[in-house]
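Hi support team,

I submitted a single chain yesterday and got back a structure, but I'm not sure I'm reading the token output correctly. Could someone confirm the output below corresponds to the sequence I sent? I've pasted both exactly as they appear in my results page.

Thanks,
R.
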Amino acid sequence: MGYIKSAALEETGFVVLDSYNQELDPKEWLDVEYNDWKSSGDTRFAPLASAFGDIECNGFWNHKPPRTDKDGVWIDSQVEKAPNLARRAQEPGANVGRCRIIELQPTPYGECLYNLHQDDNNRLNPDGTGWVVRGFFNLTDDKDSYFVLRENRTDPSLEYRIALPAGAQLIVDTQRLWHAATHNGDEPRYCLITSWTSGPELDAYIAKYNGKAHTDQVEISPEVFEAGQVEQARRDAARAAYYAAKGQVEVQAMSEA
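Hi R., thanks for writing in. Yes, this is the structure output for that exact sequence:
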């Protein structure tokens, strides 16, 4: 039967939406409660919707009963502090699973490449239903930072680098694409991440905000590019050696984040 997917994401696995005027909204991400939940990089997360409405970040499949990343329960204490962010996450009218704010500390390009991961959004998702993707709304004005997307984690021949000023909005099939953020700056980067179920509601939202499967690439110097590949390879080798020394086989597992 197959899953219901958005045709707009078929070509590249992502779309960039019209920019949002984030400066009009208060900095609600500074008021909510964070968990020290590690994903790709030095991170914390502030959940707005979770499996049962608790301030926790675990995958829905790790709860009882286990389920896919759908039907998240809004956390009243968090939504009261961040009503505009909750509104934006619900605007498409698509089913929302996890919804949370990520706080990412500065992360250079080479570390970002090492952090590239895929998400496991559709674990336990029944065939014939909507495919779960993720929306990313950049909240802070990180003009020198960029999102990195690859079809193949270690192949730089096709790499998308998407700028992250305040108000940047993109939707990504994060189970298809390897992804992480390069954050060049002295302060943390904040971004709202929402799991949405594909279907007519999300398609209409993408069309409303002129979702594009291509965007201008963030240009980086050849020196930064090459150094990044070297750093990724070095860290990968060190990780493989660590597992080998323990007599274990390294597994490139999908992230829960």
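A quick pointer for reading it: The chain is about 20% helix and 25% strand. Let us know if anything else looks off.

Best,
Support desk
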